[in-house]
Structures are given as structure tokens and as C-alpha cells.
Amino acid sequence: MVEKHPRSEPDTAGSAMPEDAIDAGTLFRSHMSFVANFVARLGARREDVDDVVQDVFLIAHRHGGFVPGPARPTTWLAEIAVRVVSTRLRTQRRRDGRTDDGALGALATHEPDPARAAETAQQLRAVQNALDSMDINRRAVFILFEIDGESCVDIAAGFGIPINTVYTRLHAARREFLNAMSRLEAVERHGASVALSRSRA
Amino acid sequence: MSDDPPRLRDDRSTPAWVREALQRSAAVPLVSPDTAAALARFQSRVATGGPPVAIASRAGRWTLGGIGVAAVLGALWLGTRPVHRANVRSERPASAPVRAVANPVTQPAPALLPVETPRQARAPEAPPPLPTRETRDPGGPLRAAPQSAHAPAPSDRDDVQREFAQLARVRAALEHGASAALALADAGNREFPHGMLAEERDALAIRALARLGRIAELHRRGAIYLQRFPRGIHTAEVRQALAAAPTASPH
């Protein structure tokens, strides 16, 4: 199937790029870190992140690079990333284990205060667990808006969807996220309270 | 100029700990890739034409989204779909009608934020996802579907507190011995057949089975768990436990 992308030329591999297009190499240098973190939060396994990033930019290249327009490069790349990750997750679902305690644990080493590091790791793990419980399209909108700070207009332009669809997905994603976080927090809190009462006893 | 709602991390009505978690998530990158090495690899792939890349088509999404009615369909779907998951059952509390998001552009920003306090979020009107009629909990009887999603009677709150305390005992037991934790988890399933923490109990039971090396049972209960909670908050952990178990196939 030939895909039409809202913010790029159709598959132009082998043909001339539009004059104002930003080539994939430039995109790579500018947004590789963004894409890597986006796909990691989206559910790509830690060991797959590099490959997913490569695939995303290869597709961007085959689309002729990014043509400036309503979408931002980040949201345009994010739309490609969602499709790449979605495909990978489907094929890997049976053997996939998303929880990446190694990566989250490593983050703790960036904090000089051990207590603070543990707290940070716990918070990141909670956020990731809550994200993992969402549908991938809602998760993508949530990550872009709530974590990456993109605007709903830019998300809509990047994904080629109506802005009301973005709002609807964001609304649903927020409910799922808050419910999941509340559930995680409730379990943690009750566990802690029981431990505290035992230590007092 | 923006019609966007305030971000949760900036919204004072968001629980403080959730705000802080989101703020840290925004500030701390999950991965720090080696850009130079990755760029060299990318350029090499481009130079050689690169392998085919499997990617999902946009067509599926456009069947709904591209015709400009996705928002309406989404709102209708939210309002009419059957309740089937614990953490989405409270999506439509009385204080947050679905129509509030049907046209968020014209709504004040807070309308997009679920009007839900932490207490409401934890309230027991959100029992856990339930199995299909064909799905039997290996550690307990078949759990019947709830008859309604009404808020609990005050007397139910004691049960909720007891269930939380019971789950805490399971978690504590797991620190000392997997057998005891497994027994407690199964006891919890029998004591709270309609409880709201079945997902957590089952996840702990699966963790205990993995530690005990009871592979066949691990795969059996893991498969049931994944069927019951395909997008649960512990689903990734369960998948990881199954993937790490010696037997390749869960069946």
C-alpha cells in the first residue's frame, strides 16, 4: 500500500527532495534524542530503541525528509515512530517485557542523593507503568503533550488527525493515566502503612 | 494563544505526587543514546538503501479519524461502551460528564481534566478487570461480573481497607518466602472474589511462582493474567516473567 503522509511528499526514495525539505541527516542530528526517548516511553524495549530510531529516520528519509508546514519535525517524526513501535510490539508481544528496571535504575545514579535517586526511579517507574497500561495512540498523545510539551495543534498536524481527535485521546489518556497512578499509589501507600505499623509494633 | 488545557504537571488540581512524577519524567531522559555512533549507522543504512522497514499503515486510523468524526465517535464510545476494566470504569464519574469533552475547543480548559480527586480515584467503585466466563482463576472460583458500577455503600469501605491490608501482607510475605506469599495471594482471591485488587494479587502470585520455579503453573496463570489484563499496570512485568521462564511457550 502506498502511504500518503500529511506532512511530506509521498514515498520519494530515489527522487529529488523538495527545496525546503529538511533532510533526514539533519533531522537525525537534531531530533534523534527526542525520538529515542519517545519510543522508549511508547513501549519499545530498551535493547530495541536504537533499531527503532534507525527505522524511524529511514522512513523519514524515504518520505523525502521533513517539509516545513503546520507540523513540527518532532510531531511528524513521532507519528512515524508510533507506527514503527506499534508494528514491533505486535510482532514481539508474546516475548516482550517492557519494564526496564535497568534503564530506570541507571537513572538513579545521576542523582547525588541516594534517597532522591530511589524516589526518582520509583516515580519514573510509576509513570512508565501507567503509560504501559494505555492504548498506544492515546499513550502517544499523552507523552507528546504531558511530557514533551507539544501543543495539541502540533500533535494534530503531525499525526494528520483532527484536533478534536487529539483532545479526545488526551482526555481518555488522562483518565487512564490518573486511574493507573492512583492505583499504584494506593497500593504503595497501604503497603507502607502496614510496614510502618508493624515496625511500631 | 492556545486552547490547550493546562498540563497535568502544571495543574494545581492534579495530585501533587503525580505532578512531581510528571515533572521529573519531563526533566529526566529515559535513554541517552550515542548520537554520533547512531548517526554513522544511519548514514551507512541510507547509503546502502537500507532494509525494508515494517510499519503500520495509517489507513486503519483514517477509517475513523480521517473523515472528521473521530471526536464524536470517541465521545459516543466513551458514553456507551460496556464497562470492562477496573481502571477505566470510573472514567465517567457523575462529576465529569462525557459531553464535557465532546467539543473541548469550546470548553474551558479544566473540562478536559477528569474531575476526580485522589480519593475518588481510589474509591472502590473501580473493581478490577474481570475474567470472561470461560476464564477461571487458577487460585480461586470464577469471578462473576459486577452487576453495576455504582459507588460502594459505606459498609463496603471496610472490605476495601481489609483487601488493601491483605494485599500488603502478600507483598510483605513475598520478601520472606514465595510459598507463603502465593498461599496468601490465593487466600486473598478466595476472600475477595469481587475485590478491586485482583490484578495486584495475581501479579504477586505470578512473581512468587517465578521465584519458586513452578514454570508450568507460572505460564498457566500468566496466560490467564494477560488475557484478563492485556493492558494492566503489571502486564509488562508478567510478560517479562514469562519471557524469562525456561519454557518458551506459555501453553
Task: Bin the strand percentage of chain B.
Answer: under 5%
Q: Alpha-carbon distance between the termini of chain B?
A: 55 Å
Give me the count of strands of chain A: 0
* SS summary, helix count of chain A: 8
- Roughly what percent helix of chain B? 40-55%
Give the distance, in angstroms, between the N- and C-terminal Cα atoms of chain A: 67 Å
Q: pLDDT below 50 for ≥5 consecutive residues: which ranges of chain B?
A: 59-152
Helix-strand layout with pairing:
The complex is a heterodimer of chains A (201) and B (251).
Chain A: H1 24-42, H2 49-62, H3 73-92, H4 101-108, H5 114-132, H6 136-147, H7 152-159, H8 163-200
Helix pairs in contact in A: 1-2, 1-3, 2-3, 3-6, 3-7, 4-5, 5-8, 6-8, 7-8
Chain B: H1 16-27, H2 35-47, H3 59-65, H4 70-80, H5 86-89, H6 118-122, H7 154-176, H8 178-191, H9 198-212, H10 215-228, H11 235-244
Helix pairs in contact in B: 7-8, 7-9, 8-9, 9-10, 9-11, 10-11
Task: For this entry, give a set of tags.
heterodimer, A: 201 residues, mainly alpha, Butyryl-CoA Dehydrogenase, subunit A, domain 3, B: 251 residues, 11 helices, 51% helix
Describe the structure in brief.
The complex is a heterodimer of chains A (201) and B (251). Chain A has helices spanning 24-42, 49-62, 73-92, 101-108, 114-132, 136-147, 152-159, 163-200. Chain A has 201 residues and is an all-alpha fold.
Structural summary, described in words:
The complex is a heterodimer of chains A (201) and B (251). Chain A has eight helices and no strands. Chain A is globular, with a radius of gyration of 19 Å. Chain A has one domain: PhyR, sigma-like (SL) domain (Butyryl-CoA Dehydrogenase, subunit A, domain 3), CATH 1.20.140. With 201 residues, chain A is mostly helical. Helix content of chain A is 69%, strand content 0%. Chain B is built from eleven helices and no strands. Among the domains of chain B are: 57-119, no CATH class; 154-244. Chain B has helices at residues 16-27, 35-47, 59-65, 70-80, 86-89, 118-122, 154-176, 178-191, 198-212, 215-228, 235-244. Chain B is mostly helical. Chain B is extended. The longest helix of chain B has 23 residues, at 154-176. Classes of the chains: A mainly alpha (201), B mainly alpha (251). At the A-B interface, α1, α2, α3, α4 and α5 of A face α1, α2, α3, α4 and α5 of B.
